Amino acid sequence: MKQVAQNYKSGELTVLDVPPPACAPGGALVRSLFSLISTGTEMMKVDESKMSLLGKARARPDQLKKVLATAQQQGALNAYRKAMSRLDSYTPLGYSLAGVVTEVGKGAEELHVGQMVACAGNEFALHAEVNWVPLNLCVPVPPGVAPHLAAFATVGSIALQGVRQGRPQLGDTAVVVGLGLVGQLVVQLLCASGVNVVGTDPVAERCRLAEKSGAVCIPSAEGQGGTALEEAVARASGGLGADQVFLAAGGATNQPVELAARLARDRATIVDIGKCKLDLPWNAYYEKELEVRFSRSYGPGRYDPVYELQGTDYPAGYVRWTERRNLACFLDLVAKGDVDPEPLVAGTFPLEDAPKAYEQLSSGELKGVAFLFSYPPVPQGPPPPTAQDANAGLSTAHRPVGATSRPARPHGRRPLAPGAPVRAAFIGAGNYASSMLLPHLAGKPEVELVRVVTRRSLSGLNAQRKFGFAEASTDLASVLDDGSLDAIFIVTRHSSHAELACRALEAGKAVFVEKPLALSTEELDRVVATVESTGNDRLMVGFNRRFAPMFNFARKHFGPLRGPSVVRYLVNAGSLPADSWYRDEASEGSRFSGEGGHFIDTISWWLGQDPLAVATLGAGPGNLQVSLSYPDGSLGTVTYFTNGHPRFPKETFEAASGGRAARLENFKRVTVWASRRRSTYALGGADKGQRAQLEAFLAAVRHGDDMPVAFGALVATTRATLAAEQSLATGAPVKV
Asked: What is this structure's pTM?
């Protein structure tokens, strides 16, 4: 299918052929009819992409802060590579469209095939021929609303939420500063609500367009209306001043905020809908006791994964107008004729002309506030067959762990032909896979990257372009049913690991699955049962610390253990961004269940034993002290905290036994005290062992040898990690 994409590093904007998305639970596949170009948000992104690296950093200080934080923890080189990898990727554009449902996933049955819907979301309602859209970002289009007008629903709901935040009443006077696309719709909504509207914009044509909707408009340079604008507001309000001022402008100037203070009455409301500078002049806002309110996108539910992705609605008695209800409300207003986007449409382009359209918009050649992309008509007749795999979209929550519709395939440990590469496929190609695994495999003669399967079309295409996969797909069965593959890498979200590992083992493949192997004892038991029933123990889990050069230097110079040892692993995990999927503990497990296996595995490897029992104490959310006891009396402790200083080292390892000691400092320096000598090893970059781990795994597959880590050790580490969570919940030690 065709999709518009942009390379943020080079600024290239193109229409790509990408694999169509699969239909995942909780949403529907929608074939686009029209999608709306956001002349504000999208053009800001397009213009930013043309800046130098320094310009991009200045434009996005939030992203620069993340890069600097990564550099502090992982080293400047790793931070640079990760940042460049993300910049040099195709990213999607678009967030407002109308189309026809072609397939419905489980949990979204209120939609039906052939239904016209309006869709929202900058991750879902993209400029693409087909999109998968979750239920709460998808609403039916009322009869009589043309699809090109329904494509305005998302931007319309942004305007509607802004109006709601202002709380206008019949007879109020409102000023709209900025008459772009959102501002025009705000004007129409206010006029339909019985509000006297005064608008202002530097572009005279936009003012005339808003006047056709019922506003009194004063063109002004830089959004300042001067005396004429103040007089217009005074006439409309009977000399009181504006009850609400809606800031629908953008840019770095502070003039809209200063203008709002002059036009507002005492105790008026200022609503920020756009993205303009908000350096509030204290005296002006204090003397009038002005209330400043923000309008967050489409309405309540936005940026909440429980609402948007899991489909959990907010009760109307508590949240009357959610983003989905706002979408539906706007379409109802269009259906009744109270709001009419038709006069705003300045042009429609076929999707393949997207690069030309954006270039003309960027140069100013195209005038107007609203432009659309059109798509080929929806094919008549039954929808084409799709990959309706139970794990389509790489989600496995609805499928019993280990369930399979395919018979187990025989596996063998026969070595590959001399010189033959390991034919490998990846399921998942997110940040970790793209920055920590695939760079060590790309271009290596000992491995052939055959196929990458991802939930999002562009993710797979980016991985194919960067790392040389022969094929990118969204069809999970294309990997699991490919008899020519030797190895499958599973680098997806935690909740899918056990299920996908079982299915890959049942398919007779060597399997590399990122940690954690499982999120529950039931999942782990199923993995064990799968290995026993198939005889395929060709499994590797991404516990990479034991392969790190610094750990191996320390272990070698430490020498044989003499009596019980004491080992401590101190982990400064840090806080998580508000939008991180790691916060979804109900689906993805706790942070410790997700990464605690790293540290338990390293301690067990150091001691050469599996733990017998685990006891855990907690000190607030995410802060744990996990004590591990071992058969020879050794004691291991993982101190895991999320409330530390970001510049404090992320990982510190210490061990003592028989008069010897070792200390590893965040993979930058390791020191061993043995006998009368002190050995030190320092490394410029933070090598956590991913390269060596991958080499060991591929060598085992190539030569038919045992996996680098025994299956029993993988199970023991996973059981101990799960036991740590159980001990925390019960307050008692748990035997492993």
From this structure: 0.84
